[in-house]
Amino acid sequence: MENNSNTLASPEDILVLIKSKISKETSLAFLSAVIIGLIVHLYFFMNNLPHADSLIARTYHPGHAWDIATGRWAWQFLDNLDTYFTLPWVTGMICLFSIGLVSALLVRLFNLQQKFDILLLSAVVVTFPAVTIAFCQIQVVNCFMISYFLSVFAVYCLVQFKKTGILLSSVSIALSLANYQAYIGVTILLYNILLIQELLRGTELKKLLCKGLRYLLSGVIGVTLYFISFKVSLELSHLTLPDWRGINTIGQIKLSEIPSLILQTYQYFFNYVFTDQIHYNPWCLVVLYAVICTTILGFILFEIITKKIYRHKADFIVLFMLLLLLPFSVAIWRFLAPRTPMSISMIPQYSLFLFLPIVLSEIKPSDEVKSANDNNNRKRALKSANGGKTKGLNQRMVLKWASVVACCLISYHYYLLDNIAYQNLNLQYQKTYAVAVRIVDRIEQQPNYSNQTKLAVLGGLPSANYPITNEPQAKELKGLDLPAMNNFVYMDSSYSWYSLFYDYLGVSFIGSADQNEQNQIKATNEFKGMGCFPAANSVKIINGFTVVKLS
Predict the structure, then answer these.
(1) How are beta strands 539-542 and 545-549 bridged, if at all?
(2) Structure confidence at residue 172 (pLDDT)
(3) Contacts of 67 (CB under 8 A, 6+ apart)
(4) Alpha helix (H) residue ranges in 202-312
(5) In 3D, which of 221, 229, 214, 242 has the Cα closest to residue 179?
(6) Which residue in 70, 77, 194, 84 sits closest to 146, CA to CA?
(7) For the chain, percent of residues with pLDDT exceeding 90
(8) For 463-477, b where at least 16 C-beta lie within 10 A, e where not — what string?
(9) Rounded distance, CA 36 to CA 102, Å?
(10) In the chain, pLDDT over 70 holds for what percent of residues?
(11) What is the mean pLDDT of residues 39-64?
């Protein structure tokens, strides 16, 4: 390539330039995340498996009034990436591209050099159930994964760019929140991990505190920008914040509530790790979680002892406080939105906590330590560089092996769990479709049947006759809050049935009964005299409505 400033660069020149800027570690992280993601989630990408939420959104979903009202105003723009149609393969590839970027940025942030560690990072991130729950919401998952990327990109900008870092980071945080608010937890936990990493690398406390203030400032500005943009979007759209799942109370915390909320936040973290209250925890998984926690403490103690951090009181106190904040950062949403029901989809950052011992195993001296001038800092630099190699190498290797094996087995467990979830989603769709066909058959047998009526499906199918899922699956999927688990719960929604009949069975009506019309139908003697499905008289035409009584 000729070095001529007047010559316009060719596409090939641009590709060569981009390639020269990307390290082998970054490339490996991106490619491994995409490939592992395909292996784990391919079943879902290759099938269209509708559920309660996607039926409401329809196969074509251009409307975004509800999304804007709930604070996710960026969805109206991001849906243009894959059109407004529900396209699992197209959306899935966009999401894997975003996850690949997440993995690549994390490798840069953590300064990972070992190839196996990079592969393991991609596996942990891609298999974590929060990603699976997001994929199950196929109509909006692209927005979720872009929010994930932006939450990590915000931290990367702050670390990488000294002058424009705060601005770029703040804007990224605001855009991440505008897609899905829960991913702010990823940014918060990354700040926490990076500060711990810097302290253990030997960064001076003064410089560490300056970095902490930059992190805090970017977060405050980012959240402020988000709330301003949210208010503007509500005004422009003439919408109001709904009272839904406590979203209108996010951040509204009384001072008297703070102690109990802090306790609840820590309690949520430990319940997730060591109990069955949050999700199904077989004993082997509890042991693996315990290994992760133990190796994190082991690496920390090793660094404290070998580098004699305990001799520096201020450093030791700050390190202790940062470690104390780790569980709080993982479950931060419990504190920020105490009246919002928690689910695993709100803790995607937990996968980063699982990988933390691997991050700690690759700690190296910081640039500040390498360039230290005074004798004390030089000694600390020497210990940072050589402490793990000259002392306790075997102990570090034992910790490394324990953490690697634990991460591998946890990722494999998540891989199985993800596909159990997808299988369950398929089975739920098949069951729902079979019942829908039977209901349509009954409707079309009515003597006065006409598609120029409104559809009113009232009640829900009895779970004893139509179980939501089989017992083994229900046990394994406990706590995942998958939309798949709600397929038979939505049966009291006439609009969902209307969408299912129209989009998947090709049966049309002029619309579905609204709540007032449903109440009027329930008050009629004809409805009261109807039997419940599958009774022979469970379907009737009443006052221009095709009525199906499920319960």
Answers:
(1) antiparallel
(2) 94
(3) 73, 75, 76, 140
(4) 205-237, 258-274, 283-306
(5) 229
(6) 77
(7) 32
(8) eeebebbeeebeebb
(9) 14
(10) 82
(11) 75
Bigger pLDDT: 84 or 28?
28
What is 200-220 written as a DSSP string?
A: HHT--HHHHHHHHHHHHHHHH
Q: Would residue 392 be called left, alpha or beta, if left means φ above 0 and alpha means ψ between -120 and 50 degrees? A: left
Provide DSSP, 444-463.
HTSTT--SSSEEEEES---T
Phi, psi (degrees; rounded to nearest 5) at 540: -150, 160
Give the Cα-Cα-Cα angle 472, 129, 470 (nearest 5 degrees). Answer: 15
Is the dihedral angle over the CA atoms 202, 204, 207, 212 positive or is it negative? positive
Contacts of 392 (CB under 8 A, 6+ apart): 302, 306
Instruction: Compute CA distances 471 → 272, 414, 415, 477, whole Å.
Output: 22, 19, 20, 10
| Closest of 246, 217, 189 to residue 71, by C-alpha | 246
376-399 per-position pLDDT tens digit: 554 454 454 444 444 567 788 889
Separation CA 186–CA 191 (nearest Å): 9
The distance in angstroms from the start CA to the end CA of the chain is: 74
| Closest of 523, 467, 471, 515 to residue 495, by C-alpha | 515
Residue 354's Cβ-side half-sphere holds a number of Cα atoms within 13 Å equal to 30
Q: In 10 A of CB 448, how many CB atoms?
A: 8
Asked if 127 and 376 touch (Cβ cutoff 8 Å), the reply is no
Q: Is the preceding peptide bond at 259 cis, omega within 30 degrees of 0?
A: no
User: Is the CB of residue 63 less than 8 Å from the CB of residue 134?
Assistant: no
- Beta pairing partners, 455: 512, 546
Measured CA to CA, the distance from residue 147 to residue 187 in angstroms comes to 11
Q: Which residues pair with 541 in a beta bridge?
A: 546
Letter for the amino acid at 359?
V
Per-residue pLDDT of 292-343, as tens digits, reads 999 999 999 988 888 888 888 888 899 999 999 999 999 888 888 777 777 7
* Cβ atoms within 10 Å of 52's Cβ, excluding its own: 20
pLDDT digits (tens, 9 = 90+) for 171-207: 999 999 988 888 999 999 999 999 999 999 888 888 9
| Phi and psi torsions of 269, nearest 5° | -60, -50
DSSP string for 336-383: H-TTSPP-GGG-TTHHHHHHHHHHHHT----HHHHT--SHHHHHHHHH
Would you say 60 and 79 are in contact if contact means Cβ atoms under 8 Å apart? no
Q: How far is 70 from 341, CA to CA, in rounded Å?
A: 15
What is the enclosing helix (H) or strand (E) of 512?
strand 511-512
State the chain's mean pLDDT as an integer: 82
Separation CA 509–CA 9 (nearest Å):
58
- For residue 541, give the DSSP letter: E
CA–CA separation, 191 vs 180, rounded Å? 19
